[in-house]
Specification:
The protein starts with a strand and ends with a strand. 36% of the residues are buried. It is 0% helix and 48% strand. Strand 4 and strand 5 form a beta hairpin. It is mainly beta and 126 residues long. Strands 2, 4, 5, 6, 9, 10 and 11 form a 7-stranded mixed beta sheet that branches. The protein has a 4-stranded antiparallel beta sheet with strand order 1-3-8-7, with no helix packed on it.
Length: 126
Amino acid sequence: VQLQASGGGLVQAGGSLRLSCAFSGRTFTSYTMGWFRQAPGKEREFVAFISGYGRSAIRHADSVKGRFTISRDNAKNTVSLQMNSLKFEDTAVYYCAGDRTVIVGQAANARAYDHWGQGTQVTVSS
């Protein structure tokens, strides 16, 4: 499995960005996909996940709920993260992750994912 994240950049507080993650190498619909982020000096933290197999269970971290939206396009093998009303504290490297066997109850745990993209930097200026 290969994951390629893109879409990061520099944005002012209150602005928006859309991250995308291109998936290749296996059957995309079988994979639960997640977004995580890591700020300098902090541990990697959960942002959002969307399950595979057509069940489309979705969860967002409380810190981004109402501002960020995860979605997937199974025809294009991509998962996206629409980020609105960005805050300074959203500044981090954002990673997409995928796993075929992770269960919904574990999908917010970074250690449950076997496959990771390279990360894309999001910087929000205050």
